[in-house]
Amino acid sequence: MAINGVGASNSQIGSALSAATGSSSSQLVSEQAFLQLLITQLQNQDPLSPADPTQFVSQLASFSSLEQITQLNTNMTSVLDNSVTSLIGKTATVTDPSSSTGLTSGTISGVVYYSNGPAVQINGQNYAMTDIQNVS
To answer: What residues contact 87, with CB distance under 8 A and at least 6 apart?
Structure first.
């Protein structure tokens, strides 16, 4: 989001961002932080040379897109969580490089959530969702 040229100094922008996010470290800009930056930008613009209104429209459109993508991500995570847990108790075949055949079959006894996605537990081992070859 470009906010240069509207009269707010870098220190004022940094202060607004710190106030809105609660820290001075680099973080994703939340809705509250965005609104705080927008208010700071409006308060500090030069009245004789106001900011181009198309910049505000562009920033609001970007903010709206970010909000919609965040909501979509939340919904997709919920769908994934619900679909993964429905696999518990089913028999699955997964790729397993440590097996002589390269495949392992067993009953899914649980689901483990890692930062890169969920994994299923079969015979005491965790397998990524991408390792599943067949579910019955």
So the answer is: 108, 111, 120, 135
